[in-house]
Specification:
Layout lengths: L2 H16 L5 E4 L2 E4 L4 H4 L16 E9 L4 E8 L10 E5 L8 H9 L2 E3 L6 E3 L9 E6 L8 E2 L10 H18 L8 E6 L2 H15 L9 E7 L5 H14 L5 H10 L11 H14 L20 H11 L15 H9 L2 H6 L16 H6 L8 H9 L3 E7 L7 H9 L5 E10 L2 E9 L2 E6 L6 H4 L1 H13 L8
Parallel strand pairs: 5-8, 5-10, 10-11, 11-12, 12-15
Antiparallel strand pairs: 1-2, 3-4, 4-8, 4-9, 6-7, 13-14, 14-15
Helix pairs in contact: 3-10, 4-5, 5-13, 6-14, 7-8
The protein binds 2-acetamido-2-deoxy-beta-D-glucopyranose (3 copies).
One 2-acetamido-2-deoxy-beta-D-glucopyranose binds next to loops.
EC number: 3.4.16.-
Protein name: Carboxypeptidase
Family: Belongs to the peptidase S10 family.
């Protein structure tokens, strides 16, 4: 960067720091509120290594959610590519528990910059969801990605409730940095274990909204291959593995006869336990998150991988790390990228000297997670009654939270069908099928794994846009 440009940026930033009053400008023929506020401008990302050139602003940094214990959550926020002041705000959460929304959501799935396999930079994502909305990616809770606590004891008490409260505090404090989004329509989206996080956070927002000073204009939630109800999720996993030729009829029969997934003591039945282990053993040979793609064979380090299935087995409620899609080694590139000193400096994570240790999933969090709701279906009912838009989608080649798990879970809600099962289309092909219920839309993505947008980026963007408009996915060719 030459000196003149540096000086210009410096002056621009200094000027915006001095401005107490919001800036107004004429855009799209009317007066609009400028989004850049003095606090936000500190987080403006200006020289991210390897970043393609773009004409929208993006911001990254920390929001302190608990002063006393020193808890800070890391976010990365991309304004919409066009008309950002008119578009809604969408908070995206990945699951785990313990996995990073920046590492997965932002840089492997739906953000504007995707990690490149050459490990040296980022490539432009033509199907980025910030074409339709202002996208906010949060690493939650503390211990995930760059988010941290200065009180080590905090890491021992992580759970659903803890995560929801910190994420709520994050939103409120983030609005102080970005006041022009304070009254914006908000949606929360995410996948996997966020199937629990998201309804829980939505419920908390709904509850706190009784106080008009805290009001957040939450309009709906969007959930991909979500963990929903443990008993139904397990039944779906087992039936899916059998129906997709991963295990034998004999193994499936033993499970059907000996497993009581509604019990809190499922694994004390030896027959059940061994038969389920057989499923996991077969899945350990392939990518459980994407049955028909290859596994990554050139992982250098990560002894973590081997322990994944063990963790999966004994913390039966939990979701282990997820792997990439078409390129199963994406996790590796992502890890290298976020541990670069120049990247951490550009994202306001460290000074570039004393670097933070970033991992895509924190298995300590995953294993130590004690507070997990067995089912979020009662929350669904509450949110449906409150008039929130709830859309659930499912990549139908995922074995971890398979389409059967989601169908079993949703069926147990007993909602009235308002539009019967039918295909939805993308470029004259069947993108998947969908069914509408009173208060809920369910859709599948044909041939997509667990992290749907990795496999079906163009379809996902179209579907996301339907969700935002509150219209059915395109159902005529
Ligand atoms: C955590 O501790 C470090 C080192 O003392 C300090 O710089 C940082 O501001 C603290 N973080 C929070 C959120 O208080
Ligand atoms: C299992 O559930 C029963 C009945 O709900 C309860 O009495 C028991 O304490 C639970 N056991 C464990 C290990 O949580
Ligand atoms: C980062 O974390 C990994 C896994 O916990 C550990 O093996 C490694 O030594 C850590 N690196 C640094 C620089 O702290």
């Amino acid at each position: 960067m030459n000196l003149i440009i540096k000086l210009t940026i410096f002056l621009t930033l200094t000027l915006s720091l001095l401005l107490v009053e919001p800036v107004f400008s004429v855009r799209h023929g009317k007066w609009v509120h400028e989004t850049v506020n003095s606090l936000a401008s500190e987080d403006l990302v200006t020289d991210l290594p390897g970043q393609p050139e773009v004409d929208f602003h993006h911001y990254a940094g920390y929001v302190t959610v608990n002063e006393k214990n020193g808890r800070a959550l890391f976010y990365w926020f991309y304004e919409a590519t066009t008309n950002s002041d008119e578009k809604p705000l969408v908070l995206w959460l990945n699951g785990g528990p313990g996995c990073s929304s920046v590492g997965y959501g932002a840089t492997q799935e739906i953000g504007p910059f995707l990690v490149n396999r050459d490990e040296h930079g980022l490539k432009n994502n033509p199907y980025s969801w910030n074409r339709e909305a202002n996208m906010l990616f949060l690493e939650s809770p503390v211990g995930v990605g760059f988010s941290y606590s200065n009180t080590t004891g905090d890491y021992a008490i992580l759970g659903d409730d803890f995560a929801a409260h910190d994420a709520y505090m994050f939103l409120q404090k983030w609005f102080l940095k970005f006041p022009s989004y304070r009254n914006r329509i908000l949606y929360i989206a995410g996948e996997s274990y966020a199937g629990k996080y998201i309804p829980e956070l939505a419920e908390l927002i709904h509850h706190k909204n009784q106080d008009p000073f805290l009001y957040i204009d939450l309009k709906g939630i969007l959930l991909g291959n979500p963990e929903t109800c443990d008993a139904e999720d397990w039944m779906g996993l087992v039936d899916y593995a059998w129906s997709h030729a991963v295990v034998s009829d004999e193994t499936h029969k033993i499970i059907k006869e000996s497993c009581d997934f509604n019990s809190n003591d499922t694994w004390s039945n030896e027959d059940c336990s061994q038969a389920v282990d057989e499923i996991l053993r077969q899945y350990s040979e392939i990518d459980i998150y994407s049955l028909y793609t290859s596994v990554c064979t050139d992982t250098s380090d990560d002894s973590d991988d081997k322990s994944t299935l063990v963790a999966f087995r004994h913390n039966s409620k939990m979701m282990p790390r997820i792997m990439g899609g078409y390129d199963p080694c994406l996790d590796e590139y992502t890890k290298k990228f976020y541990n670069r000193p120049d990247v951490q400096k550009a994202l306001h994570v460290s000074d570039g000297q004393d670097i933070k240790n970033w991992t895509i999933c924190n298995l300590h969090i995953f294993r130590g997670w004690t507070d997990s709701k067995a089912s979020v279906l009662p929350i669904y009912k509450k949110l449906i009654a409150a008039g929130l838009r709830i859309w659930v989608y499912s990549g139908d080649t995922d074995g971890r939270v398979p389409v059967l798990s989601t169908r079993y879970s949703l069926n147990s809600l007993g909602l009235t069908i308002t539009r019967a099962w039918r295909p939805w289309y993308h470029q004259k092909q069947v993108g998947g099928w969908f069914q509408e219920y009173e208060g809920l839309t369910f859709a599948t993505f044909r041939g997509a794994g667990h992290a749907v947008p990795v496999f079906k980026p163009s379809e996902s963007l179209v579907f996301f846009s339907s969700f935002l408009r509150g219209e059915s996915p395109p159902f005529s060719k």
